Each structure stands twice: as structure tokens, then as C-alpha cells.
Amino acid sequence: MKVFATLSCMAALCAFVASPALAQTPAWPAKPVRLIIGIAPGGGSDLLARAMAQRLTVQWGQSVVVENRAGANSIIATEAVAKSAPDGHTLLFATDSAFTISPHLYSKIPYDALRDFAAVTQLTEFGTVLVANAALPVSTAGELIALAKKDPGRITYGSIGAGSQMHLISEMLNNKAGISLSHIPYKGVPQMVTAVLTGEVNLIWVGVFSSRPHIKSGKLKALGYSIAKRTAFMPEVPTFVELGYPDVDKGVWYGVLAPARTPRPLVERIHADIRRLLDEPEFREKELLSKGYEPTGLGPDEFAALIRRQFAAGAIMVKVSGAQVE
Fold first, then answer.
1. Per residue in 223-244, pLDDT tens?
2. Does residue 120 share a domain with residue 148?
3. Are residues 58 and 198 in the same domain?
């Protein structure tokens, strides 16, 4: 009996010593969780963030509050999270540009995209379709490139401004295909779409769901997709990667990140809970697939590796485009 008692005491002592972090780490979440996003209320990413917040509030037993800090291409929101306490109570609902484009586009930026954050999970990734006005005498990307080489500068493309995804990927296509598409900037996506429908501009990059009705009606022609994997929503459209232009690869992703030095077990817990949400059939269909978002749910290590790769690719794209913001 004495031996048994001694062994039991030793086992209890070892368990206590082996897990001091467990003994010292307070329950999480201990207060409302802020999910900071860099756009104004009402946009697609904001609506997704709010749908997630409602579900996570139930899962976590604490309010998850979406906090909009719009402005400066999400730099304001991203900086706020970078400077927050690494305790899991402040998270960033991020879009790719804050991590892959803005660090190269702006001469000064108040955070380090690779060092100031702990990647939690990529939620979804999606590309854009290069569409042409019906009057442009091309039906494929190959025909577009051939025509552009015959008459440099005549074919025009619209974007929402220098440094935008549409501008960067178009200039990369110019560079890699040896062509000269002419850039015409617009104030926003609605104006850009109207311009291509009326023939004011020949080409634009636009979302699958936005373009699909116009493609079906014959007003626009789909020429290529902007990321390496074809979209399930328009599987007949080839990617520029498979057409022989591996550097013409630029999509949009939404993801969740935490401040650097957030404890790894907590990062993994948040990822697991969000991944569980992404896998829920109702949420997946209603909040993602029905809106054109293809869920990924990448884990912390995969997501961090993706950010590093796209950070490097973004530097090249910005350099090729010549875009710069003071």
C-alpha cells in the first residue's frame, strides 16, 4: 500500500510539473473577441466575417465582435492587430493584399507582414476571370495575345487603379507574353464592368459570379482564370498557368491571423474551431459556395508558407507594374 501511495503521489507530481502552462494559462476566451477587418460594413468579406462571428459566438461562449477599421487598403486594421496583445482576444480578418501587395506598393508601412503575425487559417481563395467585350475578335487567351502582338497598345483593359489586383496581373501578362495592353483606371468595379459591357474598354478581370450572367448572355467572353487551379464555378475556363504563363497567378484570399507570439496551442484551437465551421454543410453552402467562395481551411503552417510565397511573388508583380504609393 505504501509503495502504491508513493507511486500515485509521484505520478501526480510529474503531471503537475509536466504541464505548468496548463496550470498558468487562463481559460480562453475570457472576454469578448474582436475580429478586426479593414473594410467598411456591407462588403462581401464583411458579411462573411459577420456570419462567422455569429457562429463563433455560440461556439466560444463569448461575443465575437466584428470591428470595421476601413482605410488605407486595410493597413489601419492590420496595424491595429499587429500591436494588440497576443492573447487570442484580437484577431484579424485579412485579405491577401495587406500581406502580399501593400508591403511592396507603399514606401512605408507600419507593420512587418512576415514577422508581426501568427497565421491561423486561410478561409477561402478565389480568382478572377479575364473577360472580353463581345465585339473584340478573340475567343481565347491565345487569340488575344496574338492580336495584341499585331497591334501593340490598341487593346485596353480596365482596373480600379494602379496597384490593384487587376492592374498587377495585367501588367504581369504584358511582361510574360510580350504584349502591350493599355491600362484605363476606373473609380470602382461597377464603373469598370459597365465600361467593358459598353465597349469603352476591351478587357477586365472580374469575379466569376459577377461575370457569369454576362458570359451566358453573350455580352462577354471568358478568356482565362487568374489562379493556378480552375474554378469549380466555371470549370471550362483555362488558367493562365496551364496556358504557359506560370507567373500570371494572382488570386484573392480571406484569412484569419493573430498577433505574433500568440501561444501556439491557442492558434491551433482557433484554427480547429474555424475549420469545423467551414466544414458545416449549411454554413459552407450558404455563406461560401453560394457566393462564389471556394473554402480552403488551411492550417497555421500551410497558411504561413502560402503568405511567404505570395509575399515574394507580390514583390515581383509590383516591380513589373511600376506602381508605387507614397
1. 999 999 999 999 999 999 999 9
2. no
3. no
